[in-house]
Design a protein that fits this description.
single chain; about 375 residues; alpha+beta; seven-stranded mixed β-sheet; five-stranded antiparallel β-sheet; 8 helices; 17 strands; about 25% helix; about 25% strand; binds zinc ion
Length: about 375
């Protein structure tokens, strides 16, 4: 038996792997940080034998509530990821699986590889509507890629969409793949109409270093990028520094920051009701967007989500608050579940890569609805 995480976004520490019925594991912390929860590893075991894999340090992870009702993902071909029986006893997370083949991958959510990220960028660049821009370099020396979709013009709204500030939230990049695929489809009426009146600035992966390193929440030097928007620095958070600098040049009429939430089994948005300049216009933009997304897909709902911020109490280091205040624009964090959408459960797959992609497509319908009001 062998367990390995020595690959793109791999993360596991093997404590002991002597017998299939008692494999002891731990999740590594993000570099220079105490956050951990993302795991991704390969088991080379025995087909037909039950493997009991115990993650010993589950209760000390960033969001222990995330383990309640959680089922881990497994894949033989690294394309189809299915859920396997998983139990949390308040301390340890136990994954039980009898593989049908010798080797199998397990992960916290469906991985979105750095190779696939590069493919996504290059394939978008093939479109005449897309301009590929280099924002800057990350601490590990990777490119921070921006895709500009549509020809900038005075009458057009500027819409920014960023994803995966938290690298373990890989559903955010699956979402972007669906979003981009539809936006660049010149036979899609919604996309064509959108590009008549809007230009999109899209960062499909805000945190490539953390993604490759197998981090949950931080970049190469342990910075939580979504607490850096008040004062980003080239030393700690070049990713945010470059994006904010570019936003200042383009202006922003709408911002969407895409995430995954460990605990809540729903898709939801978090707005900026707590920023100093929040007003009726802002509220109307939020309501228009939410109403349109509710109509577009039953995967979205507004009943469950984060507690609302009291007026003036928003955390201004968070992207959606900082951008909403600075540019007085519609600004949302969009959250998808790690577990499932409890309104529309799927026992075999839970919340999945294809469902994240579909939601990315459907969000364009909601943007089309709100777009005439953005300025
Ligand atoms: Zn997040």
């Amino acid at each position: 038996m062998r367990i390995s995480a020595n690959f793109d976004s791999g993360n596991i520490q093997v404590i002991s792997a002597d017998s299939a019925d008692n494999i002891r594991l731990a999740i590594n912390k993000d570099n220079q940080s105490d956050f951990y929860q993302w795991f991704h590893y390969k088991l080379f075991g025995e087909a037909g034998t039950e493997h009991v894999m115990v993650i010993e340090n589950a209760s000390g992870s960033a969001y222990p509530d995330g383990w309640d009702g959680y089922q881990a993902l497994a894949s033989y071909d690294r394309e189809t990821w299915f859920r396997v029986p998983t139990e949390y006893n308040g301390k340890e997370l136990t994954i039980r699986h009898t593989p049908e083949q010798e080797s199998v991958y397990y992960a916290y959510f469906v991985p979105y590889s750095y190779e696939r990220h590069q493919d996504l960028i290059q394939s978008a660049q093939q479109s005449v509507d897309c301009y590929h821009e280099l924002l800057g370099e990350t601490i590990d020396g990777r490119e921070l890629n921006l895709l500009v979709i549509g020809e900038p013009a005075e009458h057009k709204n500027t819409i920014w969409v960023t994803a995966r500030q938290h690298p373990g939230e890989s559903m955010a990049e699956w979402f972007m793949e669906g979003f981009l695929g539809r936006l660049l489809d010149d036979e899609d009426g919604v996309a064509r109409k959108l590009l008549d009146n809007n230009v999109f600035y899209i960062v499909p992966n805000m945190n490539p270093d953390g993604s490759v390193r197998g981090h949950l929440r931080t970049n190469a030097v342990g910075t939580n990028l979504n607490r850096e928007w008040a004062e980003p620095s080239l030393e700690k958070s070049p990713e945010v520094f470059y994006v904010l600098k570019r936003m200042e040049q383009t202006g922003v009429d709408m911002f969407l920051d895409v995430h995954g939430d460990e605990a809540l089994p729903y898709n939801f948005v978090a707005g900026c009701e707590g920023i100093p300049s929040y007003d009726e216009r802002h509220k109307d933009l939020e309501n228009t967007f939410k109403a349109a997304l509710l109509t577009a897909t039953p995967e979205f709902q507004t009943k469950y989500g984060y507690d609302l911020d009291a007026p003036g109490q928003a955390n201004m280091t968070v992207a959606n608050s900082a951008v909403g205040e600075k540019f007085k624009c519609l600004s949302y964090t969009l959250e998808m579940p790690f577990k499932d959408n409890a309104d529309l459960p799927d026992e075999d797959f839970g919340w999945s890569a294809p469902r994240s992609q579909r939601l990315g497509e459907d969000v364009l319908t909601a943007i089309l609805a709100v777009s005439p009001k953005l300025r």
